[in-house]
Amino acid sequence: MTLPEPTLLPAPGQRNPLRPITGILLERILGRCIAVFSIVFGAQGIPFALMQQGVLKQPLGWLVVGTLFGAFAAVILTGFSGRFLVTVAPFVPIIYLVALTTWPLGVADPSVVQPTVPWLWYVANLVLATAVVAFSTWVSAMYVVLIPTVLFVVRLTPSGGGATVEHALLDSAYVAILGAVVLVVVLMLRRAAADVDQAQDAAVVRYGDAVRAHAIEVERLQVDSIVHDGVLTALLSAGKAETPKARRLAAVMAGVSMARLISAAETPTGLLKEVSLAKVRERLDRARGHLDPDARLSAEGEIGSLSVPAEVAQTLADAAVQALVNSCQHAGDSASRWITVAADGDQAVVIVGDDGAGFDPSVSSERLGVRVSILERVRTSGGLAEIVSAPGRGTVVTLRWRAATGAQEHPDSIPA
């Protein structure tokens, strides 16, 4: 009877364990962008690094070149592969900061004014972009300020080219502005990705809540239908049974109610498979034998080979049996009945009709079983239920379920 608990979400109060897909994708894109930048700007700095080796102390000059460009190569490999970039990338800004700070000590003659800017200036923007990806926002912001400041000081020294304050300020400002732009862009993208991931998690949580609410509603309808169709109806029929026919009808309804209770308690819903529509006809044939053996039943050949999920077959059969019980109780002793079970293409159709007293379906207080046991039950299973009746003109209950889609729109005109 109890429906399985949906496994899509954790228990209430726990954070959804889904991975932040958008954030992960953004980090992969940033890693590949840094790899491309390393190729382009790293290649741009190689000629300047080679030309200035003559004024540097050796092997210190070649050690700096080999270490820094080796770190660039590692960033290229990890950036394109998408693995270990967060481990490798921090080495680039650390090595660069050490090399830039010790630049005056690495020049062979610190007193000689160098004719060009240190080659480290040509890869400064690449290093800042790598720092933005490698470090947190605050560390990256501090680095974007620190590197241009150190570069400004180095440019004023003879080993850094002996630039004027204005020239050194322009060189360092160029690096700072580009670094700040990269920092702001990456920060905005990361926040947008985090917002998307948060919205996705919230949507999944709401969907999970809707799944649980639907499961609870389905179980409530099952309980309502069993209570009304079985227990309540059987008790009411037994209390009003004054004729042998009425007593026999009450006994049959009690037996069916007990069988349904046992079946609901023992049958795991998730393990049911599809069954032939002929099984629905067989059950209705048995119910017809107990309730009204004179009722006409459609030929088995009208069913064909159509199959429906076992839960749907149970729903169609229960609703049809309830319609037949309602007819036996309210249509009158002289009423004749018919039952049709057929396949209309990919659609299962079950019809229970009579030419008896009928009723006004627009009156909601009439026939509680019509609303709970027939209409809502079939709607919950994704089918259509239509009841056509009028006082003195009989009642026709039509149940439909389309096997191809398993769900259909529910017309608002069905009487409640």
TrEMBL record:
InterPro entries given in the database record: HATPase_C_sf, HATPase_dom
Assigned keywords, A-Z: Membrane, Transmembrane, Transmembrane helix
Coiled-coil spans in chain: none
Domain Histidine kinase/HSP90-like ATPase: 316-403
UniProt entry tagged with the keyword Oxidoreductase: no
Transmembrane segments: 29-50, 62-82, 88-107, 119-152, 172-189
Protein name: Histidine kinase/HSP90-like ATPase domain-containing protein
Originating species: Frondihabitans peucedani
